[in-house]
TrEMBL record:
Signal peptide stretch: none
Superkingdom of origin organism: Eukaryota
Name of the molecule in the record: Alcohol dehydrogenase
Keywords: Metal-binding, Oxidoreductase, Zinc
Pfam families attached to this UniProt entry: ADH_N (PF08240), ADH_zinc_N (PF00107)
UniProt key word Oxidoreductase: yes
Organism listed in the record: Solanum tuberosum (Potato)
Length: 355
């Protein structure tokens, strides 16, 4: 690795305070070590986590903060010990860029659950003590273990949202056997995560029903995403008619939902998965116990499963619905994201707009 590459300025967009307003920012990436990959960023998806961190909603943000953890790009340089990537490869980086590599979870390639805490792609503390900075930037340096191969002919722009939104719904679906053809799946919420849950469900051969509070999403759910059924979740009659009819339900919404109502829709031994973040989980215990039902949670996924998901999407031609925007539009896009005014994921065209 040449010193010129290690020391050159990285161009990014950063928030300087809890207003969350981003503006151009130059900084230096850490030097590339023997097992690192340096990739020029082509695209970066926009996640609601970008809103939370830039606005310090969780109270832990370290400014200046460069968000973005749905990253795709092209390898520019590799360290001397890198085995799985070469210059010119198409690659991706997700929600974390390092972990202890020694605990039981890292050994099982579930690094996101690292006992020492996985190092987040942005606003984490890197191995050299510096604060990590994400994909709203021109390039990034990452250990090859946390870098993923984008399958040949899969568009880099489409691959970006898979590195967070995609793996967030894919992981629990695989873990809880939500990939059995003929079984029934309910998807609560039809945003960045929900629309991918529908696409995965159909690819697995499931009968997919979308639950939403907005009738305006019906046509999109059925005719564009391929859902089998659409239900207005606030309509008590529609909900009651579906009692004990679902093997699985995945809740992608972060707003509060009536858990007892959704538990009543599950068959015996049915599973309700939470990947959104409601403010509370409240239900009558009997509604869980008497039907031998489960409520489980999940975040993103380990390195092995992330690569598996990327390959699955390529082989089954699963593509997120995206709106590509230039880096100069990020503040407007974040505002729209907060208002749920996007179908269904913003993706920043970093390579062609950052200067």
């Amino acid at each position: 690795m040449t010193s010129a590459s290690a020391n050159e300025n990285c161009l990014g967009w950063a928030a300087r305070d809890p207003s969350g307003v981003l503006s151009p920012y130059e900084f230096n990436r850490r030097a590339v070590s023997s097992d690192d990959v340096l990739l020029d960023i082509a695209f970066c998806g926009m996640c609601f986590a970008d809103v939370l961190w830039t606005r310090n909603i969780l109270g832990t943000s370290k400014y200046p903060l460069v968000p973005g953890h749905e990253i795709t790009g092209i390898v520019r340089e590799v360290g001397t010990d890198v085995k799985h990537f070469k210059v010119g490869d198409l690659v991706g980086v997700g929600t974390y860029v390092n972990s202890c590599r020694e605990c039981e979870y890292c050994c099982d390639e579930l690094e996101v659950h690292c006992s020492e805490g996985a190092i987040n792609t942005f606003d984490g503390i890197d191995v050299d003590g510096t604060v990590t900075k994400g994909g709203y930037s021109s390039y990034i340096v990452v250990n090859e273990r946390y870098c993923f191969r984008i399958p040949e002919n899969y568009p880099l722009a489409s691959a970006a949202p898979l590195l967070c939104a995609g793996i967030t719904v894919y992981t629990p679906m695989i873990r809880h056997n939500m990939n059995q053809p003929g079984k029934s799946l309910g998807v609560v919420g039809l945003g960045g995560l929900g629309h991918l849950a529908v696409k995965f469900g159909k690819a697995f051969g499931l009968k997919v029903t979308v639950f939403s509070t907005s009738i305006s999403k019906r046509e999109e759910a059925i005719n564009v995403l391929g859902a089998d059924k659409f239900v207005i979740s606030s309509d008590e009659q529609q909900m009651m008619a579906l009692s004990k009819s679902f093997d699985f339900i995945i809740n992608t919404a972060s707003g509060d939902i009536p858990f007892d109502t959704y538990l009543s829709l599950l068959k015996t031994a049915g599973v309700l998965v939470l990947v959104g973040f409601p403010s509370e989980v409240k239900f009558i215990p009997g509604n869980l116990i008497l039907g031998m039902k489960s409520i489980v949670g999940s975040v993103t996924g380990g390195t092995k499963q992330t690569q598996e998901m990327l390959d699955f999407c390529a082989s089954h031609k699963i593509y997120p619905e995206i709106e590509i925007v230039p880096i100069q539009y990020v503040n407007e896009a974040l505002e729209r994201l907060m208002k749920k005014d996007v179908k269904y994921r913003f993706v920043i065209d970093v390579a062609n707009s950052i200067k």
